Amino acid sequence: MAALKARYDHLLGKERPEIVEIVSWAAGNGDRSENGDYIYGRKRMREIDRELAYIARRMKILRVVDPANQPDRTRIFFGARVELADEDDERQTVTLVGDDEQDAGNGRIGWNSPMAKALRGASVGDLRVVRLPGGAKEWEVISIDYA
């Protein structure tokens, strides 16, 4: 939520006013049909406005959840850090986060990802099959932590 708010404030307070100034200056130069600054500026302003609208919609529906306040720590819910083992006993640790926060390279998987959907509600020792584009894979839940 904080990252979305910071991005929104940056776009609205810094980038958009700069583009508006460039477009105003370019519009005053005459023929707009062949004015690159004007054309690019208008295009960039539309992109910024679209992103601002998207961020505003996301912030309106988002809810900040503190995983430390999870009452049932024996099952996997939002915010859980989960250690998994596959059939070859290769271990992987993932944290279930909001879709806007996901970063698979750092073990942060989005709440609506196939793996997160398969893990929801599981307890230690449960086996879950995750259907991925490369095929199905079975994972065993080794540990659950809400830090």
TrEMBL record:
Gene3D superfamilies: Transcription elongation factor, GreA/GreB, C-terminal domain, Transcription elongation factor, GreA/GreB, N-terminal domain. SUPFAM superfamilies: FKBP-like (SSF54534), GreA transcript cleavage protein, N-terminal domain (SSF46557). Residues 2-63 form the Transcription elongation factor GreA/GreB N-terminal domain. Residues 74-146 form the Transcription elongation factor GreA/GreB C-terminal domain. Keywords: DNA-binding, Elongation factor, Protein biosynthesis, Transcription, Transcription regulation. InterPro entries: GreA/GreB_C_sf (IPR036953), Tscrpt_elong_fac_GreA/B (IPR028624), Tscrpt_elong_fac_GreA/B_C (IPR001437), Tscrpt_elong_fac_GreA/B_fam (IPR023459), Tscrpt_elong_fac_GreA/B_N (IPR022691), Tscrpt_elong_fac_GreA/B_N_sf (IPR036805), Tscrpt_elong_fac_GreB (IPR006358). GO terms for molecular function: translation elongation factor activity. It comes from the Bacteria. Coiled coil: none annotated. Pfam families: GreA_GreB, GreA_GreB_N. Belongs to the GreA/GreB family. GreB subfamily. Necessary for efficient RNA polymerase transcription elongation past template-encoded arresting sites. The arresting sites in DNA have the property of trapping a certain fraction of elongating RNA polymerases that pass through, resulting in locked ternary complexes. Cleavage of the nascent transcript by cleavage factors such as GreA or GreB allows the resumption of elongation from the new 3'terminus. GreB releases sequences of up to 9 nucleotides in length. This is Transcription elongation factor GreB. It comes from Erythrobacter rubeus. The gene is greB.
